[in-house]
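User: We ran a pulldown and think these components assemble together. Before we commit to crystallization trials, I'd like a predicted model of the whole complex to look at. Sequences follow.
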Amino acid sequence: MNMSVVWLVVAAAALAGVAAWAMRRAWRVAQPWGRWIGAIVGGVVAVAAALAAVVLVIGLYRLRSRDDHPISDIEVEASASAIDRGAHLAEACAGCHSSTGDPPLDGGEDDFLEDLGDLYPPNLTPGGSLADRSDGRIARAIREGVGFDGRPLIIMPSAFFHSMSDEDVAAIIAYLRTQPEIDDEVPERVIGPMATLFIGAGMFPLAVQDPIEEEIDPPDTDSPKKWGKYLTTIMACAECHGEDLQGKDGGNGPSGPDLTVYAEEWTAEEWRDTIRTGVDPTDNELDPDEMPWEDYSAALSDDELEAIQAYIAGLPTPDED
Ligand code: HEC
Ligand code: HEC
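Assistant: Here's a predicted model for the assembly, 321 residues in total across the polymer chains.
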């Protein structure tokens, strides 16, 4: 727990008390005009400070440990095919968890909280904290957003990884353990008062998901739509392209355009080449800082890109809604 936030709660509660007391004093002693000013200023300060204290306490409560989430009993088999599959999937983690943007996942260099605290995507090579953690704890962190030590993660896209199959999450873990040991630790997480306030007010969602109690089977790859839906979900396309993939306007992170019309109109080659080269059929160059096409190109096979297109092409377009 961030002790400076605890002290801030105490200070805000004390301020609320003092302001309420001052308000009552003003009412009793001051001249009529002073009385009103004192009462209004005191009242506003008392209510604002009390509200801040309450929201901060809710934020601290939300940030409590979730180590009571059961630890997954997933089985990881370090076969060559699993490691290869995991290496592909890990490309989709590298944009955040790597200092270079590519595997190995030696820890990110961007502070995701900027002025509101310190939050760096951890080093996930065997040189980091991964080495002494069980497979189940790593699977829980990826799919349920509960950190190795039980802390609720933020920013980590577990909402999308929640439906990842046992096979895929096991493949990622198998791969993570084969990376070179790099022992750069990222700075420890610090969630400052403003970020705690946002979390308390519900304006900043945590990554924590429901515990996964059942096995998650891999998608049916004979059905391009089911396969594509699975991949579109775990690859988090909706995070920037909107829940229905009809584009997103505003909110957190980059705003991606509608994909439903492109998926329908572009040929399989055009779709594939856009993700592989970062240049779309109208010669528009995609900004890699906004649309992580290099990561997706490395993570996804041609068949997988086609399945994603088939799934998105079958979704309603904005005109059809
Ligand atoms: C959008 C950026 C982002 C992406 C993409 C991302 N992560 Fe994370 N991840 C984070 C951040 C930030 C944290 C630290 C969160 C915290 O401490 O609150 C984190 C934490 C974790 C942890 C917990 C480690 C610990 O010390 O408790 C694991 C495990 C993890 N990520 C694995 C993955 C894997 C595997 C992928 C890809 C399948 C992935 N992440 C993709 C940002 C990301
Ligand atoms: C981190 C945000 C983000 C994620 C995640 C993301 N995109 Fe994008 N995407 C964008 C943005 C922003 C653009 C517009 C980029 C530009 O024009 O420079 C874009 C553009 C595209 C385009 C080209 C559209 C055009 O106008 O030519 C395609 C196709 C696309 N994304 C597909 C996907 C798919 C498929 C996924 C999931 C596998 C995905 N995107 C995930 C942000 C994202």
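The pocket of heme C (ligand 2) is lined by residues 235-237, 239-241, 253-254, 256-257, 259, 262, 274, 280, 284, 286-287, 290-292, 296, 308 (CB under 6 Å). That may be worth checking against your pulldown data before setting up trials.

User: Thanks, that helps.
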